[in-house]
Design goal:
This protein is an alpha+beta fold and about 750 residues long. Helices cover about 25% and strands about 25% of the residues. The chain contains 23 helices and 35 strands. A seven-stranded mixed β-sheet has the order 28-27-35-33-34-32-31. Strands 3, 4, 7, 9, 12 and 13 form a six-stranded mixed β-sheet that branches. A six-stranded antiparallel β-sheet has the order 15-23-22-18-19-26. Helix 1 crosses helix 8.
């Protein structure tokens, strides 16, 4: 179960179109998961009768052969720890613009089997060792294990077969098939030379065109667990385990060919059901029947909690001739990691392989849309003038109304055709998705499953419509007018997303354009500071490994840049103010490390030569929105007041802002503006700070800090009340009146600052 989704996603990425899978006795939830893939049309599921152990692979292969749909031209017979990897004629990955070529495998197989006399192709193995890993690590199998045996390793002469199923009589073993007609060839297209009397073992190793990456052992932990599962009825002795592990733990050569496919595999996994719905705990009772029953009940229970309610189709317009949605269905849906799986097909007149620019647009938030390219295209033979675009995508939402449209790019321009409106209604007792951490390269963590769909923003699927951009333009104009009325300088500081700056560590590929790019493009340069280039120059020092926010050093650089942009000081002078700061390396868990079990921590520099809390004069202690903090510093570089209407990234800027300005007033608003507050504080500088992932929606200038405080104090839980109490600091009424904050302090409940 723990390997199945990656195995499916990898082979979809390299061009496999269908799977015939034999379950020969799983009890960990695999069978229930495979049934979902069968419902999607991806899998033909076989459960050979009378087969209950892994020694029966030839019999399972015989059942697979009998189950092959007649529409399949060629079939590769491999196991779940084997990956069919396309290579070029030199045994390396063919690249297009430094990216793997997804058409390489099917094109190459088409050439091999263009000879009508070829009935089977033998692909040799490449045995991969443990790469020195003792325990299961983060990431995909193809990412974690990058050390293989030498080409001459004797087990690499084992091969697996790619055959025309109609020409196979039977399998002699799991590697070699007896043919009715035709002959075997190797990767070079030459007649296969088999060791005498040992079908399944070739005389030489050929890695041209493709090979089978065999991850036989993985880490020590995974090897032991797999052997325990396979030998539930018999003890695994230390001698047997050590001999099996040593036999295949070969790490003579480094190979990153399969790893180059990682981002494509992650993308394919987005469009597959979540395995967590079906997984049976490893410590569950060992009886096979009990585990199968538990798997079925778990999957039914979790699916039943989310039901598809209703739909309303729009009249189709040319050139769209048909729209067919297979999932979600009227009574149920398939859950993915972040939402619900949508599978549908769109028939378009005039669609050809040359002209096949069709996209599916999903919208569940006003002014924001998620654009998906077609998963695959299908073109009828003959003189047909229409084609079909197939979509299998994850809708990263589980409740609410979703509008579906087709976007076709024609010579006349972009054509948008409404298709359907879906209403997804979860069970009242079901919990909404909670934000989680996505594990990237070298242990870097990234935000996932948040309400702003950060992952899909990073992928470039999320885009803003013109009405959303118009809201941003209006926001900038109104805020500029307000600053003139208040006689204050204003600057918006946008914290770039960690995914964008540290994209080299992110497991998913980065899209070309994101919502923040669209917004920055339409905002005036003097109004907005978006320091993406500045942070990229800092490399790994820009962000915390286990946190979504920039480091204090990055915040210092951005603060100095903001001071320069406001014309308050030259950039060199501002940076000189903090040149003597001292930092101490500490381990922090951050807001992402705390989302994992066990909690993860990573080393990061933390300022230890200055503590801004010593200058704090007031703090209402509210969690997030509605929090107000005031600092006063008589030794500041500038005798001015700065009002910060900011978000969570502002907190890293505090140690520097409070040394620059005589008074700093912070309000947690994520860029939302209370005009009465701006007038009351009478600040010479207004910094508006927000985060890139929030750019899908423009902030409001009609926001009320008073109403927000009332809502937060009424709805705050006892746990939040206790946790935030240590942050609170009252102030005298005279001081509050002098700061212009008396009104917003008076709306706090009586006794708010008391224990």
């Amino acid at each position: 179960m723990d390997a199945l989704q990656e195995w499916i996603a990898f082979h979809l990425a390299v061009g496999v179109e269908h799977f015939i899978i034999a379950d020969i006795g799983s009890s960990d939830g695999s069978y229930a998961y495979l049934r979902e893939l069968k419902r999607l049309g991806l899998v033909t599921l076989v459960r050979p009768s009378g087969v209950g152990d892994t020694s029966s692979e030839p019999f399972a292969y015989q059942s697979l052969l009998a189950a092959c749909p007649t529409t399949l031209d060629i079939v590769a017979f491999i196991d779940v720890d084997e990956f069919l990897l396309p290579l070029d004629e030199h045994g390396a990955q063919t690249m297009i613009a430094n990216k793997p070529n997804p058409k390489r495998l099917t094109n190459w197989l088409g050439v091999i089997f263009s000879d009508p006399e070829v009935s089977a192709l033998a692909l040799n193995s490449a045995c991969f060792g443990s790469s020195g890993e003792r325990f299961r690590g983060d990431g995909l199998v193809i990412e974690r294990f990058t050390q293989r045996s030498s080409r001459t390793f004797r087990y690499n002469r084992f091969y697996k077969s790619v055959v025309r199923p109609s020409r196979v009589l039977h399998f002699d073993n799991e590697r070699h098939a007896t043919l009715k007609t035709g002959h075997y060839v190797d990767g070079e297209g030459k007649p296969l030379q088999v060791v005498d009397g040992r079908p399944g073992i070739s005389r030489r190793v050929c890695w041209q065109g493709a090979r089978i990456n065999h991850y036989a052992v993985k880490s020590v932990e995974e090897f032991v667990l797999s052997r325990v599962k396979q030998r539930a009825s018999s003890a695994l002795t230390a001698v047997q385990g050590d001999a099996d592990f040593s036999r295949f733990d070969r790490n003579a050569r480094k190979s990153f060919v399969a790893k180059a496919w990682a981002s494509h595999v992650y993308l394919q996994a987005l469009s597959l059901p979540s395995t967590s719905v079906f997984a049976v705990p490893f410590n569950a009772p060992r009886q096979s029947w009990w585990r199968k029953t538990l798997s079925a009940s778990l999957s039914w229970w979790k699916h039943a909690r989310y039901t598809f309610a209703c739909s309303r189709s729009a009249p189709l317009k040319p050139p769209v001739t048909a729209w067919k949605r297979a999932w979600p269905q009227q009574s149920r849906g398939l859950l993915t990691q972040r939402g619900v799986l949508l599978q549908a097909s769109l028939s378009v007149a005039g669609l050809t392989p040359v002209n096949s620019n069709v996209q599916l647009v999903c919208c569940w938030q006003e002014g924001v849309e998620c654009v998906f390219p077609a998963t695959r295209f299908e073109f009828a033979d003959g003189d047909s003038i229409s084609g079909t675009a197939h979509f299998r995508v994850e809708l990263p939402v589980r409740a609410g109304s979703v509008r579906l449209s087709a976007v076709l790019t024609t010579d006349a321009g972009e054509l948008r055709i409404p298709l359907e409106r879906l209403t997804l209604m979860p069970d009242a007792s079901a919990q909404e998705l909670q934000a989680s951490a996505l594990i990237g390269q070298q242990g870097w963590l990234f935000l996932d499953q948040d309400t702003n769909t950060s992952l899909y923003q990073h992928l470039g699927n999320i885009s803003l419509r013109q009405e959303a951009l118009d809201n941003w333009i209006a926001y900038a104009e109104q805020l500029t007018t307000l600053s003139v009325q208040a006689n204050a300088k204003v600057l918006m500081v946008i914290a770039p997303s960690k995914e964008r700056v540290m994209h080299a560590y992110h497991p998913y590929p980065m899209g070309a354009v994101t919502p923040v790019d669209q917004v920055v493009e339409v905002l005036p340069n003097a109004f907005c500071l978006y320091p993406e280039a500045l942070l990229k120059q800092m490399g790994d020092d820009a962000y915390h490994v286990t946190d979504t926010h920039w480091t204090q050093q990055a915040a210092m650089r951005v603060t100095c840049e903001a001071v320069s942009r406001l014309g308050l000081a030259a950039l060199e002078d501002a940076e000189r103010w903090f040149a003597e700061d001292q930092y101490k390396v500490v381990k922090v868990r951050g807001d992402l490390g705390s989302k994992l079990t066990p909690v993860r921590r990573a080393a990061t520099p933390r300022l230890n030569s200055f503590d801004h809390r010593e200058l704090k004069r007031y703090d209402n202690g509210l969690p997030n929105f509605g929090r107000i903090i005031v600092w006063e510093n008589s030794d500041a570089f500038l005798d001015q007041c700065c009002l910060v209407m900011g978000a969570s990234s502002s907190y890293m800027m505090f140690p520097y802002l409070v040394r620059i300005f005589r008074r700093v007033v912070f309000v947690h608003s994520a860029g939302n503006i209370d005009a009465s507050l701006v007038q009351a504080v009478s600040a010479q500088v207004v910094l508006v700070q927000t985060n890139a992932r929030f750019m899908v929606r423009a902030p409001q200038l009609t926001w009320s800090l008073h109403d927000t405080i009332l809502e937060k104090t009424e709805g705050v839980s006892m746990e939040e009340h206790t946790a935030a109490f240590a942050q609170r600091m009252p102030a005298e009424q005279a001081a509050l009146a002098g700061w212009g904050l008396a009104r917003w302090n008076d709306c706090l409940p009586e006794g708010w600052f008391n224990t």
